[in-house]
Amino acid sequence: MQNENKGYEDLGFAKIDTIREQRTGQPEIIFGEGKTAEQMLTIIKHMMESGSNILATRVSVDVANNVREQIPDAVYNSVARTLCVLSHETKLTETYIAIVSAGTSDLPVMEEAYETALFLGNRAEKIIDVGIAGLHRLFDKLDKIRQARVVIVIAGMEGALASVIAGLIDKPVIAVPTSIGYGANLNGITTLLSMLNSCTTISVVNIDNGFGAASQASRINKL
To answer: For 94-104, how does the pLDDT look when each residue is reduced to its tens digit (9 = 90+)?
Structure first.
């Protein structure tokens, strides 16, 4: 049921925010974790009726396969666990977001950030596996990082890469702690606290929150 006065469509189990982009500059994005295939299909089909581009995050393989059986144009990134349906092309920014990962194990979070950044209309450059265990790998990519408008740094373990990069560039750095690490990493809590205690100027989002980092980076990139 469409509620024009309140700006949402009530599906019973979900309320689609139909004016979020007007209100915030960014469209509603579906959080897929915990949703059934039937629920996802219903939400996506209703959003498609309005001609919206659609992005869903944290979508399981089984749910994605069910959706794609009925919506063949849906594109699934199995690493990021994102599902995207585009009804129209989005013009990308001239400036770009650099998305930097400390290790290959951080790729699921990096891919979520990358897919979100593209969906929100940003150019994005991925710089993979440049953690502090081999800083020469980072220095090789430093020019590309410095030319970005804003930088997302994704790291697990002790999360030191974000502090290192922030001490080398003059652009905003958004740090994403990941749940990658051995026992004392505490599923990312150690990384989160390390980033929060950084002596360099960084902003920090929640553990494994590639979506949140890209959403904020997009706002900065479009200022």
So the answer is: 999 999 999 99
Looking at the DSSP bridge assignments, the partners of residue 17 are 8
- How does residue 2 score in pLDDT terms, banded at 50, 70 and 90? low
Contact 151, 98 (CB under 8 A): yes
* pLDDT category of residue 151 using cuts at 50, 70 and 90: very high
Give the chain's radius of gyration (CA, Å). Answer: 18
22-53: pLDDT as tens digits: 888 888 899 999 999 999 999 999 888 888 89
- The structure's pTM equals 0.92
C-alpha to C-alpha distance for 46 and 64, rounded to whole angstroms: 17
Please report the DSSP string for 24-89 in residue order: HSS---EE-TT--HHHHHHHHHHHHHTT--EEEES--HHHHHHHHHH-TT-EEETTTTEEEE-SS-
The DSSP element (H or E) to which 206 belongs, if any, is none
DSSP letter string over 99-129?
EEESSGGGHHHHHHHHHHHHHTT-EEEEE-S
Sheet holding 75-77, edge to edge: 30-31, 54-57, 82-85, 75-77
φ and ψ of 57, to 5 deg: -110, 160
Identify the helix (H) or strand (E) that includes residue 132.
Answer: none
